[in-house]
Amino acid sequence: MGVFYSRTQVRFVLCLAMGACVSCAAAELPEQITLRHLATLPHDNTSFTQGFLWDDGFLYESAGHYGRSSLRRVDPKTGKVVARFDLPQQFFAEGLALADDLLYQLTWQENVCFVYDKKTFQFKGQFQYPGEGWGLTYDGKHLIMSDGTNALRFYDPKTFKIQRKADVFDRTKTRPEPVRNLNELEWICGEIWANVWQTTRIVRINPKNGNVVGWIELASFVPEEHRSDTRERVLNGIAFDPTANHVYITGKYWAVMHQFQLEIPKQ
Asked: Nearest Cα to 221, choosing from 187, 195, 241, 240?
């Protein structure tokens, strides 16, 4: 049986059996899905997590703050940082994405995206962009960037020229409401999942039109010692392993991260 954790309190449906769930590798997600909690794993609590992604058995993390910003490769089982590059102290690292074996790391107010070789962390170049940098992900064609508003911008990763823009709205309300403070981003099965800064929610976004597909409430997975801190030690960090359909979530200065199984009922 698929196990549904009632403490998540989200709009998910329970898979009746493991065989009733399918991979999302080649399909878009339905509105109702299941996140089944698998494990609580260690995480470096000195990391002000800004960007988070999975690739080939490792997690890659962008840690922020002036004088403490870094790019990291992390062993997901132990939380140990196995490779690290520290940014110059004048840069505040933000979102992180991987495209064609290159890591793209945003900065907050410095208007620059750094590009590194995934294996060596060797600097490969940089791009300029207007406004603030918050979250970043890759859909297989575009780098998708948030800036703290409800806007998502789609960039060509080779030229960093903007291709299009989508404004995110929750249209389930009586009046459509903009979803602002979009922070860390992850591309999951044809959707954009985004942390909403200083909340315990992840929003699922249709990348074609910016409409909200659904919400994921993760308040009960915030470490108890951080629940009174709604300003800094907040939920931020979504990574997806598409081979195993595993979702990893963490937060700023958290000593833990959570591993979930994404289960999709057959239609």
From this structure: 195
